[in-house]
Design the sequence.
């Protein structure tokens, strides 16, 4: 009997050790994810998308800051970005995670608000995040629960507009970016958040007719047609590229946020292919192709504040003339 009991205890002991090993690996993984979430990087790309002879411009792309008032390190890092001297700032939404974050966010952006800029909303500019099972993302794109409290969106976006940034919420704007005498004209057209189903693409053609400069009315095209959206759903990318976008910028995906070596992003939280969850790629629709740049963002939802193999980022695009 004694030997039989000892035989039974051995598998139980092995199972216990395995459970401890899995638990320890989980703790290490979470610790690494929390560390990586605080190690922000600046990603740089150079794109020849301007007509021959155009002066180069620097575009700073910010997305998914998901700021809370205690994110002091994140705010310090954002303040330093003005040193890059961007000619245009593009903000693709999900700026805040609480109403109290608006003041700290505006302070962190600081002199960037004095530079030419454009912005579109994300769902977390409209609604507070709520606690949720972080693994629900693996079941498909996240959904909006009806009981989520509203954020003071107009206070945030009113401050952006007052600073001179153009609101591209299902609308367009013409922006001049670059040094005086060599500025580039950008026709920027954006959408409201596709993740909430609020997108209504206004089109470059309509925007040109309604807001055309003297140059365009005389038959000249704008130097750059820029499409801007928060969530890169296929329907929106198709519309932008088919309509003649020369460059498309988006956020929302967090680059997958939880990625694996040699595998990359496990999810995109939309219908964008996982291989395009972040970085520079291209998108084709109706015989046209345009560069697509998806920013992995600077933050994360408060219910899942970790990143693995996908560091938080801002993106600096050096736009140059085509050969």
Sequence:
């Amino acid at each position: 009997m004694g030997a039989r009991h000892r035989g039974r205890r051995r598998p139980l002991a092995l199972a216990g050790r395995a459970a401890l090993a899995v638990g320890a690996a989980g703790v290490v993984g979470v610790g690494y994810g929390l560390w990586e979430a605080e190690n922000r990087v600046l990603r740089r790309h150079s794109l020849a998308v301007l007509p021959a002879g155009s002066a180069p411009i620097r575009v700073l792309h910010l997305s998914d800051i998901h700021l809370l008032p205690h994110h002091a390190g994140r705010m310090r890092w954002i303040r330093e970005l003005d040193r890059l001297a961007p000619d245009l700032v593009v903000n693709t939404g999900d700026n805040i995670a609480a109403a109290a974050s608006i003041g700290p966010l505006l302070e962190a952006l600081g002199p960037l608000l004095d530079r030419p800029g454009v912005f579109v909303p994300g769902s977390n500019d409209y609604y507070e995040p709520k606690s949720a099972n972080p693994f629900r993302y693996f079941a498909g794109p996240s959904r909006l629960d009806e009981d989520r409290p509203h954020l003071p969106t107009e206070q945030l976006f009113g401050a952006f507009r007052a600073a001179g940034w153009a609101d591209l919420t299902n609308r367009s704007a013409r922006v001049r970016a670059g040094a005086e005498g060599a500025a580039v004209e950008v026709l920027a057209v954006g959408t409201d958040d596709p993740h909430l189903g609020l997108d209504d693409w206004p089109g470059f053609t309509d925007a040109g007719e309604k807001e055309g400069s003297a140059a365009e009315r005389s038959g000249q095209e704008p130097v750059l047609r820029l499409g801007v959206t928060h969530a890169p759903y296929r329907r929106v990318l198709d519309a932008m590229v088919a309509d003649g976008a020369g460059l498309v910028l988006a956020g929302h995906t967090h680059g997958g946020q939880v990625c694996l070596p040699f595998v990359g992003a496990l999810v995109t939280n939309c219908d964008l292919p996982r291989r395009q969850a972040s970085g520079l790629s291209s998108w084709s629709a109706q015989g046209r192709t345009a560069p697509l740049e998806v920013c992995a963002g600077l933050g994360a939802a408060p219910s899942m504040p970790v990143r693995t193999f996908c560091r938080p980022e801002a993106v600096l695009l050096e736009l140059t003339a085509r050969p």
About this structure: The helical segments are 2-36, 72-79, 102-109, 123-126, 153-163, 204-211, 214-217, 234-242.
